[in-house]
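Hi C.,

You asked whether I'd gotten around to modeling the 66-residue construct. I have! Everything is below, sequence then structure, no commentary in between.
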Amino acid sequence: MAIPAEVVQVGSKMGIKGVSRVRCKIMEGRDQGKVVIRNVAGPIKPGDVIMLKETAMEAESKFAQR
């Protein structure tokens, strides 16, 4: 089951495939309210809702500030 998360902040773009680091807040489930960092492919902006397969694992490395 996928879990919705709202994009709070978009960080740096990585590589040529358009992958961005985003900070997102989980909206439902046992981790509701938790903020995690994920790598997202494609166009994304703050306020978008993404569906996460799981909420336990975060993206590696430190979140890059703009």
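If it helps when you're writing up: The beta strands are 3-14, 19-26, 35-41, 49-52.

Thanks,
B.
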